[in-house]
């Protein structure tokens, strides 16, 4: 993929338009700030504590794009009265392999932007892009995993038409509790 992929999401009645684009080094400072949130730290395994870790994390996203197996997007929101956009979230398509029918999605939203459809709208854009881009290469379904007690994430999955599939047994340390597997297929 040559030019950076940029996905646009229209404004909703309660939320400005979103722009999804590959992570950049300029995102490190806001990423570190957003990562202080305890709820994010509770549910996300790879959080960053400082600029050095943030830089490594962004580099890992960039390596994923270069390798073609992991596609992480920063989710940005227009700010009224400002030309600068604000970091409000992350969506990622991962475990992509040519010819493999399944890949996985993940997401988080900055604490200050939750509850107004950022994750579900960004996930919809990611899902459409993923199928448009990789269906010809064998992609048939996207998998979404969350711990059973992550009710907000379960709701995002339901709203985004990722149907509940199975309970996954706990797999510490990354998944200390049982999980849900939700699946969305190309045809839905
Ligand atoms: C899960 C998360 C990404 C949702 O982000 P968001 O931008 O607020 O998501 P949306 O606004 O699209 O939807 C959230 C939905 O969950 C619901 N919700 C929020 N907290 C909830 C809770 N404790 N119990 C049940 N539902 C809850 C909201 O009401 C909303 O549903 P609605 O639109 O029907 O009212 C966000 O809470 C987050 O970043 N959590 C920490 C990281 C994380 O858990 N990532 C997912 C790992 S699998």
Automatic annotation (TrEMBL):
Record key words, sorted: Transferase
**Protein source organism:** Streptomyces triticiradicis
| InterPro entries linked | Acyl_CoA_acyltransferase, GNAT_dom, Ribosomal_N-acetyltransferase
Mind telling me what this protein is named? GNAT family N-acetyltransferase
Source species, domain of life? Bacteria
One GO MF term, please? Answer: protein N-terminal-serine acetyltransferase activity
Pinpoint the N-acetyltransferase domain residues.
Answer: 18-178
- GO CC term (a single one): cytoplasm
Task: Quote the SUPFAM superfamilies the UniProt record gives.
Answer: Acyl-CoA N-acyltransferases (Nat)
Q: What is the lineage of its organism?
A: Bacteria, Bacillati, Actinomycetota, Actinomycetes, Kitasatosporales
Pfam families (alphabetical): Acetyltransf_3
């Amino acid at each position: 993929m040559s030019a950076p992929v940029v996905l646009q999401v229209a404004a909703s009645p309660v939320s400005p338009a979103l722009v999804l684009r590959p992570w950049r080094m300029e995102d490190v400072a806001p990423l570190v700030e957003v990562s202080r949130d305890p709820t994010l730290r509770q549910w996300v395994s790879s959080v960053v504590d400082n600029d050095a870790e943030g830089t490594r994390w962004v580099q890992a996203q960039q390596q994923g794009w270069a390798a073609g197996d992991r596609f992480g997007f920063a989710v940005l929101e227009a700010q009224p009265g400002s030309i600068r956009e604000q970091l409000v979230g992350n969506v990622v398509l991962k475990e992509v392999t040519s010819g493999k029918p399944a890949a996985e999605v993940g997401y988080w939203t900055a604490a200050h932007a939750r509850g107004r459809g950022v994750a579900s709208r960004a996930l919809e854009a990611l899902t459409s892009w993923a199928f448009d881009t990789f269906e010809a290469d064998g992609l048939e379904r996207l998998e979404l995993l969350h711990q059973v007690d992550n009710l907000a994430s379960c709701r995002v999955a339901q709203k985004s038409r990722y149907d509940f599939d199975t309970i996954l047994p706990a797999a510490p340390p990354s998944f200390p509790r049982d999980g849900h597997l939700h699946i969305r297929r190309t045809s839905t």
